[in-house]
Amino acid sequence: MTRPAARGGSRASADRLARLLNLVPYLLARPGIEIAEAAGDLGVTERQLREDLELLWVCGLPGYGPGDLIDMAFDGDRVTITYDAGIDRPLRLTPDEALALVVALRMLAETPGVANRDAIERALAKIEDAAGDLVGAPVAVRLPGDNRRVEALRAAVEGGRALRITYYTAARDETTDRVIDPLRMLMVGGRAYVEAWCRRAEAVRLFRADRIDAIVELEEPAAVPPQAVPHDLSEGVFRPSPDLPLITLRIGRGERWITEYYPCERVEAGDGDQWLVSLRVTDLGWARRFVLGLGPDVTVVAPVELAEQVRATTAAALDAYAVPVPTATPRRPEADLATPGAATSAAATSGPLGVPSADPATAGRTQ
Fold this sequence. Notes:
The protein is about 35% helix and about 25% strand. By secondary structure, it is of the alpha+beta class. α2 (about 35-40) packs across α3.
């Protein structure tokens, strides 16, 4: 029921877009060029070039009617652009386009791990200078999370300084103090990470910025050992491997989102609306908390150890709720104070100075 996502699709589309943008000015400067020669210059096959030309035929200005689309003429194996749809004219940004570019560049400049930020800042300055009247008020863009923490991590990476951090590890539900030698900052799945050599683990680790509770920049420079190699994060932070525990859950319709949010090795239809889902996890402690956080339509099928942990934790929680709550002693009605024993009772409950420590009549009036 699940299939792996196609790889390289977005990259191929980006390459083709860049080729198409270069194709029109190239052909405008070489009217009547042979397709074979153009394909050789552009580094593509003749078949790919013909497919690109067919795509150009339906590209052009908004409206996309006669006189709006790019047009060309073929003479045997030669091609000539007869109408370029204004691609040779300088770009004039609309207010919406200028604002979208400014926001996108500011977001890119704020993203950890982006190389050559100076080039981004220069491009942003040029656009804001040229389109200042269109954009209007200055635009402030901030990524979610603690920007001061991200800035401190970025400064340590750029300055090559070691850090002492207090870090919360969600998989083990524990907080530890570590000394790390930062390698790089990066953004994965909308979250900022610092990748560093961890002296405690003696390995390269990823630390989520929003789980770092404290940062202290040390005087010593970062000492990254030669064996420290950055992770390949092209497919995300978590990469399931055969050495990780495999769990199998029986889920109802309301929990099918699991198959879209987590990488699953197997998804099979079960009885009725139920599915059997198998996925790798970092450890069973994380899996136990994960299952406990789901709805009642989830059952642990395997491993048995995980099922026993979930059962024991659930039973302990139910036992905690089953303990009776102590109730306060009922207060006597004020009418009882008129009885002969009322004065004796008041005297018996007097404090060290002879003042009643708890006057029911007074208490009854102030509540």
